[in-house]
Recover the amino acids of this structure.
């Protein structure tokens, strides 16, 4: 499958996103260790590894929440390592968080509307009435109907169930519609009937756009179904990279991910 | 029509709407409904504090930014008008120049403080504002050649706004003089400023401020550069506070450190925002009205109450007019306890 996707990509075009020797140290602990990796347009890459392997930290370095100790991040060949989170977002890196991060005292609709407003670059409009920008409200409602939250549009976020908050977390990213989608365990803590809604959305994104998707996920069946490629992080370093079948069968995954790593410590 | 004037932000509670309407009518007709130097002075102070408190609400209630320099900006506007009127001579041009210069200076200072400290952490901003405000207050009292020091400055405003200017005989028993015009200058100035701020908080910009207050981390991650918005809100709020200060200077025809720069006013503003309800704008109207009236009349009321209980043990002493600050404190604690979301929050959500 990966071969087919790659065939579509002109070998001369640079990868949409890449990291080069990307490293971050917290004191003496190297959380992400010289990760060099490139992601192509239209590819869904699953990032796996045991807890504490540095997956979320790697995400934080790419989307800018944590500054890198050394190494670089490139978007469309352009270095963005020193840029702020908002600048990276505007350049096309969108992120959904593992720990739900929403605007708790605003309505569900307002949460999504704020994203639409950011995309429309209306943030510094001080004069018009926000409520009169019907195009933004409509855009937000459309996203809400895609994640099946339209019925809860008027509800305050803090009153939503956990599962619905997770859906909204994903909805904010989908509303942003970036060039690179970064999902950090999107179905964590969701019930068995809720998770498919989010997974279908990701599958839909993959099928109907040439967007790049990075997905941190623990459920192997989900990965097997969605991923074009898997990279494995272990102790912050890139331990394996390749198509799902090969990587999942490899020793490094069996050791690093499937829980056998404890034996060799 | 009404919705447009209020920028689509209706009171959303029948009781609140009635209270606001009552306050508006009372303030609009104050010189006729409550003739008397003291009552009209109270009404003018209410108008001015509504603007001042609303501008603080823009910062604290919408932006979630704590500042202790709000009276400094208020004072800058007041001193602007005083200095311009002293040096340019009395006239509307002096008021205009002084108010504009005050607002611009306040916004510039806010920009400077904001760029230095808001990049780091909101709490750092609070500490810096405290330091700068204290420094400015000391500076104003020391530079007595320019500012009049602790004595302040007394100055002349245009003749048309003074009691000596008469433009007709009595109307409904009220003298038609410049003092009446000065009141309406303050009233309409305050009304326009309040409606402008109501407009800003209901604009897309205002929504971003709310998002930042709720979760700055996520606001940044959906593409809003949080520091820019915080700095912009600080500048706007500073300029509005300065204009409120200019109105105050015009009304008092005097500025001094105690009337426009003291930390006590800063605390009053905080109390008014909290009592009225943060992040609602209308809370500023309610908070300022209740607080200024309490400040001006609680003492009298208690004096009367104390007289009523004469002869009884303890009660007259407890209710003595000198104890009014104690009771203001008690009122404040009770209001925060019973209305944690302020009067407006309580009326809107019943909780």
């Amino acid at each position: 499958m990966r071969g087919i996707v790659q065939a579509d990509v002109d070998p001369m075009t640079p990868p949409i996103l890449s990291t080069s020797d990307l490293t971050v140290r917290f004191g003496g602990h190297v959380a992400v260790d010289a990760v060099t990796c490139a992601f192509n347009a239209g590819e869904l890459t699953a990032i796996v590894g045991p807890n504490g392997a540095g997956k979320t930290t790697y995400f934080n370095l790419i989307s800018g929440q944590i500054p890198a100790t050394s190494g670089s991040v490139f978007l469309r060949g352009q270095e963005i390592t020193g840029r702020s989170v908002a600048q990276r977002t505007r350049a096309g890196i969108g992120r959904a968080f593992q720990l739900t991060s929403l605007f708790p005292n605003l309505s569900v609709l307002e949460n999504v509307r704020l994203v639409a407003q950011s995309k429309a670059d209306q943030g510094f409009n001080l004069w018009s009435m926000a409520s009169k920008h019907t195009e933004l409200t409509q855009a937000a409602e459309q996203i809400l109907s895609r994640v099946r939250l339209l019925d809860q549009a008027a509800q305050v976020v803090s009153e939503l169930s956990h599962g619905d908050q997770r859906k909204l977390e994903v909805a904010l990213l989908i509303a942003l519609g970036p060039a690179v989608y970064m999902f950090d365990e999107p179905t964590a803590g969701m019930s068995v009937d809720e998770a498919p809604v989010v997974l279908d959305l990701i599958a839909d994104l993959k099928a109907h756009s040439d967007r790049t998707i990075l997905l941190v996920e623990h459920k192997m069946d989900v990965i097997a179904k969605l991923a074009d490629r898997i990279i494995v992080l272990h102790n912050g370093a890139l331990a394996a990279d390749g198509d799902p079948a090969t990587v999942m069968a490899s020793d490094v995954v069996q050791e690093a991910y499937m829980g056998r790593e404890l034996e060799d410590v | 029509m009404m919705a447009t004037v209020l920028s689509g932000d209706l009171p959303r509670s029948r009781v609140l709407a009635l209270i606001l309407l009552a306050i508006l009518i009372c303030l609009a007709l104050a010189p006729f409904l409550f003739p008397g130097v003291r009552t009209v002075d109270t009404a003018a102070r209410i108008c001015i504090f509504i603007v001042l408190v609303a501008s603080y609400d823009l910062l604290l209630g919408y932006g979630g930014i704590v500042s202790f320099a709000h009276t400094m900006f208020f004072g800058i506007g007041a001193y602007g008008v005083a200095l311009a009127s002293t040096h340019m001579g009395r006239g509307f041009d002096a008021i205009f120049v002084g108010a504009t210069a005050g607002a611009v200076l306040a916004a510039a200072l806010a920009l400077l403080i904001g760029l230095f400290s808001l990049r780091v952490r909101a709490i750092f901003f609070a500490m810096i504002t405290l330091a700068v405000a204290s420094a400015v207050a000391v500076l104003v009292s020391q530079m007595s050649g320019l500012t009049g020091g602790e004595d302040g400055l007394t100055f002349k405003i245009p003749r048309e706004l003074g009691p000596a200017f008469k433009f007709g005989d009595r109307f409904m028993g009220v003298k038609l003089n410049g003092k009446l015009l000065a009141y309406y200058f303050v009233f309409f100035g305050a009304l326009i400023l309040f409606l402008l701020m109501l407009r800003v908080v209901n604009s897309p910009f205002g929504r971003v401020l709310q998002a930042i207050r709720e979760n700055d981390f996520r606001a940044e991650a959906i593409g809003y550069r949080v520091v820019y918005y915080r700095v912009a809100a600080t500048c706007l709020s500073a300029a509005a506070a300065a204009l409120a200060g200019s109105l105050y200077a015009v009304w008092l025809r005097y500025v001094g450190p105690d009337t426009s720069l003291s930390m006590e006013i800063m605390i009053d503003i905080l109390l008014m925002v909290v009592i009225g309800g943060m992040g609602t704008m209308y809370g500023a109207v309610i908070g300022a009205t209740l607080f200024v009236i309490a400040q001006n009349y609680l003492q009298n009321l208690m004096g009367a109450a104390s007289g009523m209980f004469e002869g009884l043990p303890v009660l007259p002493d407890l209710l003595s007019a000198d104890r009014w600050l104690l009771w203001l404190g008690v009122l404040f604690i009770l209001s925060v306890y019973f209305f944690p979301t302020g009067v407006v929050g309580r009326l809107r959500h019943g909780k």
Observations:
- Residues 12-349 of chain B form a domain with the ABC transporter involved in vitamin B12 uptake, BtuC fold (CATH 1.10.3470).
- Chain B has a mean pLDDT of 92.
- Chain B touches chain A through 28 residues (CB under 8 Å).
- Residues 226-252 of chain B form the longest helix (27 residues).
